[in-house]
């Protein structure tokens, strides 16, 4: 039945080459943990992506209950965490995953650095990787404010004070992020927009570039 | 049937990969889906009954009463004001009608149309109902006005949740 459905679509759209191209790629011996166990260090990039997928999914589901408004944000988080089935798990996935994605990304960066994989011809992929790193930090920073509790509020205050100390553009950056005179209603709305629309869009674009480049250039050779 | 039926390495790996992948995906997706469909599975509030006055206050003529209902909408709790048209039926029981028109949800009023006295009238599309909330056939609404569950305790009338009115439409 499934095979028939697949064949029907494949006959019309010729989709087999598409997924074959995705699935069939060389995994050299030196990156295969089955051959050398130490090759598990090559898994960190994939793990980063796996957790990113969890972040995107759990984040989508969280917005079914979350409201980015100073009167309701905290109450809606409290509600979804305590009264909705599996709320504590879905929020937990997003909360812990946020830290874990930074950890995995850092380990991935270390692996790339110490295996020298950033060298020619992969310099551009290193740069894109760094941009992904900054986007991830931005996601962490903006997401931290959203529960609108004391930790969130004061962490954001501190973060914005730091942004203000940047030479020349500091005050403008702070005003842009705050959206008003105080960390308040406008800041929360802005951080929500940045967190769920702008940065994820940038992230998906950069990830696409990252993956296309690694596919074009292949995995770097053994040490 | 002595022939051994072996599965190929490729098939085995396919199954193993699909099984592991499916397990991982299910572990991820199940909590999220259960989280999203929670409103569907949550028991709807049974609803307390609210006292609206003494039974003796009501006669055979519909009388408008307002009462406040405490509603909990997720994290937002509020008092909403509900309206009921209450009258005593011939057998002494109480009929409390909801004024929400069964056509498109406007609010009906008793005895306000000079052309149709002693009827509930909806100004939006000229929907009409008789004194027991039965829809007048030929006007837009196709069902009779909903009613509140009623309870009489210590001479006081309590109104509960809204239930469908079993009375059929009438020609008028």
Decide which structural class fits the backbone of chain A: mainly alpha
What is the terminal-to-terminal distance of chain B?
Answer: 81 Å
Tell me the series of helices and strands of chain B, N- to C-terminal: HHEEEEEEEEE
Identify the biggest protein-protein contact and residues per side: A-B, 19 and 12 residues
What share of residues are in beta strands of chain B? 25-35%
On the 0 to 100 scale, the average pLDDT of chain A is 95
Assembly classification: heterodimer
Helix amount of chain A: over 70%
Shape of chain B: elongated
How do the helices and strands follow one another from N- to C-terminus of chain A? HHHHHHHHH
Q: What distance separates the N and C termini of chain A?
A: 48 Å
Low-confidence stretches of chain A: none
Residues in helices of chain B, as a percent range: 10-25%
Provide the residue-averaged pLDDT of chain B. 89
Largest sheet of chain B: 3 strands, antiparallel
Rg of chain A: 21 Å
The tally of helices of chain A reads 9
Query: What is the 3D form of chain A?
Result: globular
Task: Give the structural class of chain B.
Answer: alpha+beta
């Amino acid at each position: 039945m499934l095979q028939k459905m697949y064949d029907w679509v494949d006959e019309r759209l010729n989709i087999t080459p598409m997924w074959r191209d995705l699935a069939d790629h060389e995994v050299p011996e030196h990156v295969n943990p089955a051959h050398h166990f130490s090759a598990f260090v090559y898994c960190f990039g994939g793990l980063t992506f796996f957790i990113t997928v969890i972040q995107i999914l759990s984040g989508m589901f969280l917005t079914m209950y979350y409201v980015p408004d100073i009167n309701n944000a905290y109450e809606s988080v409290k509600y979804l965490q305590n009264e909705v089935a599996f709320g504590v798990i879905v929020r937990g996935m997003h909360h812990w995953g946020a830290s874990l994605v930074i950890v995995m990304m850092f380990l991935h960066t270390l692996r790339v650095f110490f295996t020298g994989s950033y060298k020619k011809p992969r310099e551009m992929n290193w740069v894109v990787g760094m941009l992904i790193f900054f986007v991830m930090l931005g996601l962490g920073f903006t997401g931290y404010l959203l529960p609108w509790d004391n930790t969130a509020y004061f962490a954001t205050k501190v973060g914005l004070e730091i942004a203000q100390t940047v030479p020349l553009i500091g005050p403008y950056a702070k005003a842009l992020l705050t959206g008003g005179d105080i960390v308040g209603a406008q800041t929360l709305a802005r951080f929500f927009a940045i967190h769920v629309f702008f940065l994820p869009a940038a992230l998906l674009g950069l990830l696409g570039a990252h993956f296309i480049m690694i596919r074009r250039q292949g995995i770097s050779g053994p040490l | 049937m002595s022939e051994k039926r072996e599965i190929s390495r490729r098939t085995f790996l396919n199954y193993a990969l699909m099984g592991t992948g499916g397990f991982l995906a299910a572990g991820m997706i199940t909590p999220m889906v259960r989280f999203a469909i929670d409103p569907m599975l949550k028991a709807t509030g049974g609803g307390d009954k609210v006292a609206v006055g003494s039974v003796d206050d009501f006669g055979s003529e519909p009388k408008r009463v307002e009462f406040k209902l405490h509603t909990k909408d997720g994290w937002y709790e509020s008092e909403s004001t509900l309206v009921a048209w209450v009258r005593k039926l011939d057998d002494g029981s109480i009929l409390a009608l909801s004024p929400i028109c069964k056509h498109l949800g406007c609010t009906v009023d008793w005895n306000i149309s000079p052309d149709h006295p002693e009827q509930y009238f909806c100004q939006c599309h000229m929907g009409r109902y008789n004194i027991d909330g039965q829809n007048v056939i030929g006007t837009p609404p196709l069902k009779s006005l909903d009613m509140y569950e009623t309870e009489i305790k210590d001479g006081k009338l309590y109104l509960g949740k809204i239930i469908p009115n079993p009375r059929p439409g009438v020609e008028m």
